[in-house]
Protein 1
Amino acid sequence: MHLRDILRRRRMVRHYTGEPVPRETLERIAATVRRAPSAGFSQGQRLLVVDAPDLIARIAAIAGEEEGVEPWLPSAPVHAFVLTREADYHERYRSEDKLQDGEEIEWPVPFWYVDAGATLMLVLLAAIDEGLSAGVYGVPVELEPSVRELLQIPGELRIVAGVTIGRGAPDPAWSARTSRATQRRRSLDELVHWNRW
Ligand SMILES: Cc1cc2nc3c(=O)[nH]c(=O)nc-3n(C[C@H](O)[C@H](O)[C@H](O)COP(=O)(O)O)c2cc1C
């Protein structure tokens, strides 16, 4: 599929048929993590792909989303968590070729989150390229310890977001849940300037 076709299809899907996704398909989607850019090639991105139904049911229970008209989290056969290991960046930028005047750089922005975002996007696009749908959710701060414990995520990894992946089911109530329905899409002129701001 051409990128422009993938982008046309890209939207957050919050309801799935529950049909399992073959492991080979998931492996192709997950392998995109190795294609993501990363600052200094620090490669701090990690993916935790959850396709065990009992774990997904427990994630949904933690989120308090066991049922509903369009039960988002429990209906997805796959949850992929995008994680980041910030320490990879500090380690990389303390190596000889990256030091500036003998010091680690002053970070313009936290590149570990930038790279996690790039990874997230690749996962979304790869899922669509496989004919699947995907949706992103943030893990609320108060629920994070429970998710971390359930999935045995080590303390050195930060959970950036969860991505549900699966075959999209009809979701007429989508418009009630998406901020797309309430927020104006900014014009291109607001978002893109040329030559000087
Ligand atoms: C980092 C991130 C976190 C998000 N968290 C949630 C979430 O917790 N719940 C939700 O319904 N949508 C979530 N979204 C989806 C956005 O609301 C959605 O991308 C936005 O409304 C634009 O809609 P579209 O992606 O369908 O074009 C999240 C998106 C991103 C990138």
Note: The beta strands are 45-50, 78-84, 133-137, 158-166.
Protein 2
Amino acid sequence: MEDFDSGAAGWTHGGTHDEWQVGPPQHYSDDPASAYSTPNVYGIDLSTDGAYEDDSSQRLNSPTIDCTGKYGVRLHYKRWLAVEDGVYDRATITVNGIQVYVNPPGNGENHTIDTSWQDEVIDISSIANNNPTVRVRFELASDPGLHFGGWNIDDFCVEGIGGGPGTEEIVSGAGAGPSNAPVVKTWSHASRRRW
Ligand SMILES: [Ca+2]
Ligand SMILES: [Ca+2]
Ligand SMILES: [Ca+2]
């Protein structure tokens, strides 16, 4: 797990009007008053006015994560996100270039404004299972008007199971096996590994 509290080794960011930074959020704009795990988060503009800029296109890239031998792989992280309707501003997560999250398009009045830390779990098994090079990207693209606090990310984790003896719980369904066919697969908390 990466809690960003000792920095963010291997993470990179860039883009237009890039304001991604590691540090403590300061309740500017729609940002939280404190990190989920203190002191730090990785977020967009923690220290000036809190809000992302208009006409920005900025991304945060995880290090390469080795999921060799792992199945049922999930992205699990803490989210505090504030973004205008998706028809105007888009907050996305991609894994190896494949979109796995986008904020709802809304109707101009349904902004996504978190007011507490959200525990987010996203099934990325179809992309990440047994994949030695998994890269996660958080991105925000904004239009010329109206802006909010943007992404705040904490306790980032890609988790899966390595299989092996001694596990009992049965999971079946898409993503549970290499072929994505429904299969019986051992699964237990004891076998879940975080890295
Ligand atoms: Ca933290
Ligand atoms: Ca906007
Ligand atoms: Ca912010």
Note: The helical segments are 125-128.
